[in-house]
């Protein structure tokens, strides 16, 4: 007995020693797998800090690497370095706030996936998603027989290898958002253990039999094929497809499917609980299909072509009592009131955004409702009293962009679970008091912008909530800066532009311990000096700060290093820009310091700002030479140095030529020839007016095919207008362009019209006789102004090829010869000024074809002959033709001898006086007799009235049918 126990004790001891020894060695990864990882690292393009831990002997301790505790083999590789956190559609969010951390992580991996990854034969989990990987998936990846999870989403991989079909244990495959172009999906049929498949945002347009391929995956439970350009389903092939008993989640959003897709959906699974068919072409014929989908809990049908009355659809849902999510937004339902949703007793999320709902806001009892979106409709009347018993679970409420009026009910402050409230862009008025916000302790987003609401809060009030975003533009927060914001320690978005604040910008603002991503306090009357403590505010890399259109003064303060867009225009900042260069945010992309009182020379420090895309220093008192370092900005799109006192030569901008589109150096004292600037062959706008530019216009101007606006007026340019000017294709096109002119902010959490979104560049031109500023889309604007120079020679015939021109000004030069006969080709001209030259000969008769002409000035030339006539030309008086001694005919007093002057539709004043009384008397009597005889008869004779309106309806229906048939024919003919 004793010897037996001793034997077992010795065996147990030896086994423990062996296991501890094995465990000790298991901490070290296999050498061949370590070398494979190092080779894989060499194939990546990465920042030093990303894979900096990949050194040393034990690869199991490297970042993103996991090993088996016993064997030491690499079993998991997790290298997801997402640059941003995706903010999901708020219709899908219920209890959680989107995490707004933008570009807060390390940079993504680039390069290719090296085939050495296939040496990790024990790998069961591989995640390389959210990177910038390109090329092919290694074909040998099919040898990783133990792989169960493969995630390669959000890369630039360009092909799917059939070798994936060898992954017999694969359960999870995510290839979303790559550059795949596939012609078949037959390889999927070999993945017999697959449960989850996401091929969204790839090009599967050539996969005709995709339904058959999907049906061969026996145990698939989740399928995502969003935005794949999938072809329509052939109804004849559906009967040959086996129905799945496992598929529960199906998402086919954004494929332009028509209603025939429902026949496949109804056949592919009988246990669907989640169905997403949003962003397709489904019409009202699908209404009966939902009688068969009785297991549904979440249904997304937004952005389709559903019509009829919204209330017609509700009784068809056999799963009404179990449905938790219903999204019908962006469908053109026939205008009707908000239907009763009480039958959907389990409903948690309902989105009816932009569904043409009219009338008052009334709602049934939905005890589980957490998210309600009724924005972008036509709801009117006052806001109802929010009964806590009906909305006790409400987290998300969006009533923005309606026509709701009246005051805000106090009961809204009783919705204690609310974290999102948007009532922006309505017609609400009155006060917002502490009682309105009394119990909203969970409130994160408050959007009351674009109303006539006034915040009436005590200065010492402490809010019960910690806001993440406040949108209150065009409300009244002032006159003092709202002190209650001092307590908001989690604020990330602050939009309080045009809120009547007339106060000094507070010192305490810089002490807010939050990650401010967006600040907009523009269009108030803030005064004083911006505190230096602003530089200590934590920001995300893509932060936008807008202090424009205030009365802020003093020198430019330091700003946080990660500010992305900075708007300081239209204030009273003074001093030198050099201080900004010393403490400026190096990541700034859009910098607007225009319309201030900045003085002195520009520092030569701009090479530090390699992210800069838009620089606006216009309307200051800056002087000296333009620094050479501005030519080193290789990403710059727009430079505004206009309306300053710069002198000397323009530096070389050759390094900017691939990106620079907009150059405005107008109204300075620059002395230069045009040769340097005309090397920028991607320019859209070139404005140099009001300088001392000398020399001739080189023919290289004609190589800037993208040029739409050319303003060289008020300089010292000599020589002739190049004959090749008609080669500029952008001005020869009647189409509208907006390339590179329109810029977008990157502010997060953009909820409808909250004041955050896109901003446009601006352009000043002497337009129709006065200085005008174009701020919105001006890609349509195509203009040439070379006035007030010393040009000689003739107007080139080729200029009439620029048929897209809206504006042409060649005045105040020494041009001679004739006006080209084909001038009538410039059919889009609205303003034409050829005055104060030495032009002679007749005005071409083709001028009568300029139907949009609003400004015409041919004065102070040597033109002769008859003034042409035409519907638009007849609107100009003699000021358009003065000091042309040889001209005759109306509107001039000189009559042409021997010429017959055609009638111009002008009535002399004396004739007008004679005819006015008789004419208006007869007109009035005729109207009364006609009105009484027609309308009176229709009122008295009911049979005539019915016949008349029936005829009107019949004719209108006939015209509608004719138009619809014609459009359909055209679409078939041109395959639209």
UniProtKB/TrEMBL annotation:
GO terms for cellular component: plasma membrane. It comes from the Eukaryota. It is a single-pass type I membrane protein. This is Leucine-rich repeat-containing N-terminal plant-type domain-containing protein. The keyword Cell membrane applies. Keywords: Cell membrane, Glycoprotein, Leucine-rich repeat, Membrane, Receptor, Repeat, Signal, Transmembrane, Transmembrane helix. The lineage of its organism: Eukaryota, Viridiplantae, Streptophyta, Embryophyta, Tracheophyta. Its main location: membrane. The chain crosses the membrane at residues 919-941, 947-968. Residues 33-68 form the Leucine-rich repeat-containing N-terminal plant-type domain. It comes from Phaseolus vulgaris (Kidney bean). Belongs to the RLP family. It holds the Pfam family LRRNT_2. Residues 1-22 form the signal peptide. PANTHER family: LRR RECEPTOR-LIKE KINASE, LRR RECEPTOR-LIKE SERINE_THREONINE-PROTEIN KINASE FLS2. SMART domains: LRR_SD22, LRR_TYP. GO terms for biological process: signal transduction. InterPro entries: Leu-rich_rpt, Leu-rich_rpt_typical-subtyp, LRR_dom_sf, LRR_N_plant-typ, RLP23-like. It is found in: Cell membrane.
């Amino acid at each position: 007995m004793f010897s037996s126990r001793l034997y077992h004790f010795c065996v147990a001891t030896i086994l423990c020693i062996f296991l501890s020894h094995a465990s000790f060695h298991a901490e070290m990864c296999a050498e061949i797998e370590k070398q494979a990882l190092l080779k894989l690292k060499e194939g990546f393009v990465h920042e030093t800090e990303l894979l900096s831990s990949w050194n040393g002997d034990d690869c199991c301790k490297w970042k993103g690497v996991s090993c088996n505790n016993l064997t030491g083999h690499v079993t998991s590789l997790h290298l997801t370095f997402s640059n941003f956190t995706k903010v999901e559609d708020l219709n899908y969010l219920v209890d959680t706030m989107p995490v707004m951390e933008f570009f807060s992580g390390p940079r993504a991996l680039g390069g290719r996936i090296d085939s050495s990854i296939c040496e990790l034969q024990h790998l069961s989990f591989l995640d390389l998603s959210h990177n910038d990987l390109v090329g092919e998936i290694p074909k040998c990846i099919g040898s990783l027989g133990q792989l169960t999870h493969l995630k390669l989403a959000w890369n630039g991989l360009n092909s799917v290898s059939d070798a994936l079909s060898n992954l017999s244990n694969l359960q999870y495959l995510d290839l979303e958002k790559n550059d795949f172009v596939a012609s078949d999906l037959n390889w999927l049929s070999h993945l017999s253990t697959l449960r989850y498949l996401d091929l969204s945002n790839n090009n599967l347009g050539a996969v005709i039999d995709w339904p058959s391929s999907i049906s061969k995956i026996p145990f698939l439970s989740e399928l995502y094929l969003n935005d794949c350009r999938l072809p329509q389903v052939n109804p004849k092939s559906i009967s040959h497809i086996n129905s799945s008993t496992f598929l529960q989640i199906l998402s086919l959003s954004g494929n332009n499917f028509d209603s025939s897709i429902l026949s496949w959906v109804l056949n592919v699974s009988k246990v669907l609980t989640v169905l997403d068919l949003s962003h397709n072409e489904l019409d009202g014929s699908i209404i009966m299909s939902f009688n068969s989908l009785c297991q549904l809990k979440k249904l997304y049908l937004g952005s389709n072509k559903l019509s009829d009355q919204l209330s017609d659809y509700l009784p068809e849902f056999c799963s009404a009592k179990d449905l938790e999510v219903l999204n019908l937004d962006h469908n053109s339902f026939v205008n009707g009131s908000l239907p009763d949703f009480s039958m959907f007793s389990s409903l948690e999320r309902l989105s009816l955004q932009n569904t043409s709902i009219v009338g008052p806001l009334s709602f049934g009892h939905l005890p589980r409702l957490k998210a309600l979106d009724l924005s972008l409709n036509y709801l009117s009347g006052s806001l109802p009293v929010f009964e806590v018993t009906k909305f006790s679970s409400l987290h998300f409420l969006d009533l923005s962009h309606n026509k709701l009026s009246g005051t805000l009910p106090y009961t809204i402050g009783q919705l204690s679970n609310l974290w999102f409230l948007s009532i922006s862009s309505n017609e609400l008025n009155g006060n917002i008091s502490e009682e309105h916000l009394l119990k909203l302790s969970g409130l994160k987003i408050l959007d009351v912008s674009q109303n006539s609401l006034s915040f009436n809060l005590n200065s010492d009030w402490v809010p019960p909530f910690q806001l993440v975003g406040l949108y209150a533009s065009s409300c009244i927060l002032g006159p003092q800066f709202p002190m209650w914001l001092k307590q908001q320690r989690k604020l990330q978005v602050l939009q309080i532009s045009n809120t009547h604040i007339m106060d000094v910008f507070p010192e305490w603002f810089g002490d807010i311990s939050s990650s401010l991503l967006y600040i907009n306090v523009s269009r108030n009357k803030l005064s004083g000096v911006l505190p230096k403590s602003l530089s200590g505010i934590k920001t995300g890399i893509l932060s936008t700060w807008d202090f424009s259109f205030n009365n802020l003064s003093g020198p430019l303060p330091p700003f946080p290093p990660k500010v992305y867009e900075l708007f300081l225009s239209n204030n009273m900042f003074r001093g030198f820009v050099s201080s900004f260069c010393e403490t400026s945010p190096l990541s700034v992309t859009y910098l607007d310091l225009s319309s201030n009182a900045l003085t002195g020379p520009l520092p030569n420090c701009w090479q530090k700002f390699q992210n800069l895309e838009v620089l606006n220093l216009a309307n200051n008192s800056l002087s000296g030479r333009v620094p050479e370092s501005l030519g080193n900005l290789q990403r710059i799109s727009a430079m505004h140095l206009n309306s300053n006192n710069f002198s000397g030569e323009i530096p070389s901008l050759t390094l900017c030529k691939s990106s620079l589109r907009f150059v405005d150096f107008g109204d300075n004292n620059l002395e230069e020839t045009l040769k340097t600037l005309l090397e920028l062959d991607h320019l859209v706008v070139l404005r140099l007016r009001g300088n001392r530019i000398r020399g001739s216009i080189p023919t290289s101007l004609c190589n800037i095919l993208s040029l739409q606006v050319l303003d060289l007026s008020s300089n010292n340019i000599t020589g002739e207008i190049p004959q090749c000017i008609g080669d500029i294709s952008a001005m020869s096109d009647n189409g509208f362009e907006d390339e590179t002119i329109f810029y977008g902010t990157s502010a997060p959490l953009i909820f409808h019209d909250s004041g955050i979104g896109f901003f446009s560049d601006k352009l000043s031109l002497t337009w129709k006789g006065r200085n005008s500023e174009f701020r919105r889309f001006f890609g349509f604007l195509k203009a040439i102004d070379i006035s007030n120079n010393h040009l000689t020679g003739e107007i080139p015939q080729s200029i009439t090829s620029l048929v897209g021109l809206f504006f042409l000004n060649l005045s105040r030069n020494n041009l001679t010869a004739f006006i080209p006969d084909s001038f009538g080709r410039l059919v889009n001209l609205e303003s034409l000024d050829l005055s104060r030259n030495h032009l002679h000969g007749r005005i071409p008769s083709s001028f009568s074809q300029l139907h949009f002409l609003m400004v015409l000035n041919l004065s102070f030339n040597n033109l002769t002959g008859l003034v042409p006539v035409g519907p638009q030309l007849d609107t100009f008086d003699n000021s358009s033709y003065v000091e042309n001694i040889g001209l005759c005919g109306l509107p001039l007093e000189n009559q042409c001898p021997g010429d017959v002057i055609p009638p111009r539709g002008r009535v002399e004043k004396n004739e007008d006086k004679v005819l006015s009384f008789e004419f208006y008397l007869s007109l009035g009597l005729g109207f009364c007799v006609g009105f009484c005889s027609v309308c009176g008869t229709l009122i008295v004779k009911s049979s005539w009235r019915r016949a008349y309106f029936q005829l009107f309806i019949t004719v209108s229906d006939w015209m509608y049918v004719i138009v619809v048939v014609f459009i359909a024919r055209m679409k078939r003919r041109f395959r639209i």
